[in-house]
Design a protein that fits this description.
Elements: E1 4-5, H1 8-30, E2 35-41, H2 45-60, E3 64-70, H3 76-87, E4 94-97, H4 107-113, H5 125-132, H6 141-152, E5 161-165, H7 172-179, E6 189-193, H8 200-204, E7 209-212, E8 230-233, E9 237-241, E10 247-250, H9 255-258, E11 264-265, H10 273-292
Parallel strand pairs: 1-11, 2-3, 2-4, 5-6, 5-7, 7-8, 8-11
Antiparallel strand pairs: 9-10
Helix pairs in contact: 1-10, 2-10, 6-7, 6-10
Amino acid sequence: MAAKIIKGTEVAKEIRQELKREVEELKSKHGVTPGLVTILVGEDPASVSYVTAKQRTAHDLGFYSVQDNQPADISEEALLDLIDKYNKDPKIHGILVQLPLPKHIDETRVLYAIDPKKDVDAFHPVNVGKLLIGEPDFLPCTPHGIWQLLIRSGAKIEGAEVVIVGRSNIVGKPMAAILMQKHPNANATVTVCHTKTKDLAFHTRRADILIVAAGRPKAITADMVKEGAVVIDVGVNRIGTTPEGKAILCGDVDFDAVKEKASMITPVPGGVGPMTITMLMYNTVKAAKLAAGIKD
């Protein structure tokens, strides 16, 4: 029997509706409006597209939102001064610097300059450390989105064998940290695989939940997946264009073959992708509540 398709587009819509209600309540009961600034350096088309989508979502949810466009030749010091300005601005609860930055700017220095209480991407080492010890203020957006997909689709996480393919700071490492915690929707046994893993298929075939962020199209084939596994495909790979010039995308999992073995699977596009911006908005609302001393 073919797998149930986990539709990230629908789950993201559900969470955004919850957030919209929460924002309305924050405004009416507490006089608090979540504030988000997105800082865009230069005019990279992909970055412009991402930032536009983030601003549109923030606006739709009723945020106070600021789009701050800076020229590609801005100096590193000027960018750090700009971040410092927003760190001190009480109307701003979330600061997002769109990556990548021009080569003359040290990305690490810029990300570390963001106040951890306004770091809604959760990339600052303070937030990474708090996640690891199980006391996070914010969870990184893509792993948090994946976690919500698992929870809301009814996947059994506690006690599950979870295999993550990929060890990036954005997905693999924080995903492992989330699922290994002593938490009702975690408590999994987590294996992290990567480019130096010997016999990758040995590990992936053991997985009750397989999360793939390998960065290679169709890297996971049906013979590498356990019957009845839950498969989360984080990859987005452009493998061609249609005659009309539209990009043809595929994931890191051979979707058509694997869906015949898995119990649940995310599609590409329309799986993990829509969740990332949604969880960024979730973190901004949480940052506003933390700043106002409002408990969940």
